[in-house]
What we know:
The protein is α+β, with helices and mostly antiparallel strands. 32% of the residues lie in helices and 27% in strands. The chain has 15 helices and 23 strands. Strands 3-9-10-16-13-12-11 form a 7-stranded mixed sheet, sandwiched between helices. α3 (45-64) packs across α11. The longest helix is centred in the first third of the chain and has 20 residues, at 45-64. It is globular, with a radius of gyration of 26 Å. The model has no long low-confidence stretch (mean pLDDT 95). The structure holds adenosine-5'-triphosphate (ATP). Residues 157, 189, 191, 200-201, 204, 206, 273-276, 316-318, 320-321 line the site of adenosine-5'-triphosphate. The site of adenosine-5'-triphosphate has 16 residues, from β10, β13, β16 and α11.
Amino acid sequence: MSESNVEDRSQATMEKIVSLCKRRGFVFQSSEIYGGQAGAWDYGPMGVELKNRIQRFWWKEMTQLHDDIVGLDAAILMHPRTWEASGHVENFTDPLVDCKKCKQRFRADQIDPAKLAKKECPECGGELTDTRKFNLMFKTNIGPVDDGSGLLYLRPETAQGIYVNYKNIVQSKRMKIPFGIAQVGKAFRNEIVIKNFIFRTCEFEQMEMQYFVKPGEDEKFFNYWREQRWAYYAKLGVRMDKLRWHQHGPDELAHYAKDAYDIEYEFPMGFKELEGVHNRTNYDLSRHQQFSGKDLQYIDQESGNERYIPFIIETSAGLTRQLLMVLCDAYEDQKVGDKGNEDDWRTVLHFHPIVAPVTVAVLPLMKKDGLAELAQDIRRELKDEFATDYDQGGAIGRRYRRQDEVGTPFCVTVDYQTKEDGTVTVRFRDSMEQIRVKREELEATLKKAIKEYKRG
Length: 456
Ligand code: ATP
């Protein structure tokens, strides 16, 4: 096999990711036994661990490591006036066209403008309908009567829950500007085009942080948050050459935004938005002040009780989209064969140990001769500190491969020597290197390896 073929075969494709996710319990199609529900996905045993870890990593980064940021968990159902104030009722629309021939539906802004002008379907060449505006918010109804009087929306973003609580948080936590509010939660959008697995779905999770600053200081903090968010991905252990900035041009910039950048990742289908860092000016709080009639000005005691509506710098990331990015970034089909066994490959997920669903798997070389009991005893010792797995089925090489495929960074193997001298083998996922350590030093060895981890 030539070098370039090796390169091709080792790459992540969306098909490989989808198949691995199902096979190993990361992500399943929603309601699969009924034929599946478009736009929704279920996170299996591995997926929910990965998602929770990414969320915890983000939460720690934003709150624990930033003294001036506090958390919030607002309700999904909000007063419908919220969405009038935010502009979503009026403006949260996508331009939509349908093909009269093949019946496919497209976002007009994602079609080649020349084809759109000729009303030509990009798939079958049939005739397209006129462009219609389509609001992406899901509607629902509260109360027993469904006559429109109980109209509610499923929130299309988590940010508005932060804005409407800003005064509560300033008062209850005595926050001083500049400060931020972080939140993770579900959001819903009736997306027209749902493809690429969990990249764009109707139900997803966001991790958003809104940073409140004094007008005039917004550009300084906008740059600060761009740097911070870039540095986050390096800490997450992602290949940084797969990331790039995209600045919104005048045609993309929301009318209220002063400046906006997206961090894009090179997914198998090309560079796509991962997260946005936006300077939203004082638009959001001004609108909520206007629509609610409540005074949302901040009284700045540091500047002689000056009153103003804060500017907001937003960092808005999709949790489920980040999970897809972490999977794509970690995936490798690696040629491990050597002489006489050239075509031996393994699938390995190079997760950073901090997000890996299982941190350490304990494997007895044999079930017999007390090795299984000894291995289970060692697992018990590790449980409190690490997410562990135990596997005693099949040849040891196959068990390593199974752990590689779900991205377990460390395997601990218990063999006959363990019985004699109390040492175990630690096997490292990326390098496949093996070292022997004393049982008493195992925990410290693993902790050090996690702290010093660099993708191999
Ligand atoms: P797009 O233009 O791709 O529709 P957007 O710019 O409207 O996305 P934002 O409103 O800025 O997206 O949302 C912030 C983040 O939330 C995005 O960067 C993305 O990570 C995530 N996100 C948005 N919509 C979806 C979706 N339908 N499915 C999964 N994640 C999403």
